[in-house]
Amino acid sequence: MTNGKDLALSHIGVLVGDQQEALEFYRDVIGLEVRADLPLGPLRWVTVGPAGQPGIEFILETPSMVPDPEQSAEAQRRLAAGAHGTLIFVTESVDETFARLRDAGVRVTQEPADQVYGVRDCGFADPWGNFLRFSQPLG
Q: Could you tell me which PANTHER family the record lists for this protein (predicted)?
């Protein structure tokens, strides 16, 4: 039995409404690299991740990828209400990242601000309501 010390995070699901649109958003606007884009039966397995972290991938998943019908329906309801997952990225310059994404038309949820917990950060939302935060350590 494992005590948890041998565990490492490799994949995180991000609920999206359209995989192609999500791929273009996360690759072309956010700047993540494509890790996989493969057929998965009638579905598609699409993952992206930060170039500097090859061991972590975000699965761009739709409600139809959830095998249990009740959970798939719940995922569809969450998507309709705004998926509301959260991804937090570290960046070298919050202000430059903020300007780039704002100018690309990404919906702003918080302008850059210094936080009491030691970072300067800002917030955006993807087209499905997932929160994207970008931070840099203060000092």
A: GLYOXALASE/BLEOMYCIN RESISTANCE PROTEIN/DIOXYGENASE, GLYOXALASE_BLEOMYCIN RESISTANCE PROTEIN_DIOXYGENASE
Model confidence pLDDT, tens digit, residues 80-132:
999 889 999 999 999 999 999 999 999 999 999 999 999 999 999 999 999 99
Task: Give me the torsion for CA of 89, 114, 97, 34, rounded to 10°.
Answer: 0
Beta bridge partners of 123: 110, 133
pLDDT at residue 1 greater than cutoff 60: no
CA-to-CA dists, residue 85 to 15, 56, 61, 65, 98, angstroms:
8, 16, 12, 17, 19
Instruction: Indicate the pTM of the whole model.
Output: 0.93
Rounded to whole angstroms, how far apart are CA atoms 81 and 17?
Answer: 12
Cα 45 to Cα 122: distance, rounded to the nearest angstrom = 30
